[in-house]
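Go through the following before class.
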Amino acid sequence: MFNKNIKLAIVALIIAYAVYQFTEGEIGNGIMYILLSTIFIFLYFKNEMILLAFLKLRKQDFTGAKKWLDKIKNPKGALVKKQQGYLNYLNGIMVSQTNMNEAEKYFKKAIELGLSMDHDLAMAKLNLAGIAFSKRRKPEAQKLLAEAQKLDKRDMLADQIKMMKQQMKKAAIPKQQYGQPTSSRQNRRSKR
């Protein structure tokens, strides 16, 4: 796992060597080195461990994804700010299956650091809304759900948002008591 600054140094060295190749008349080699440097530029903005963890998550392999994420020992040194957000986002998704309190911390940290895709941000807010609703913080859950709905421009999470709204409505309806009457007037009527 390379530090993000080492990746930039490698890019600078490769580009310098590409320029040298151009001055020597080796145009093909220079172009090849420029293309090679784009790989390290890509890996500067999109960390390889996070990409591999995303691939594992697509296959529903949570343990494999966790193994790739655990290889990132120093997130602040190895990742740019948005990648740190995605690291927290992925950890939140994996932990949400077992520990809601820890998942809430991860999702809040991911939102604070920022996520580059709107649907990822919407997913994080939707998960936070579900956690807040389960902890009986309904106003916070409604606010987060509204924010998630605004961010979901392609309606990728429309079904989940709709289900969450229905669950909130069901929880808002007071439970009806069937069976024994509770007031004294109703008790007198039933005795007659």
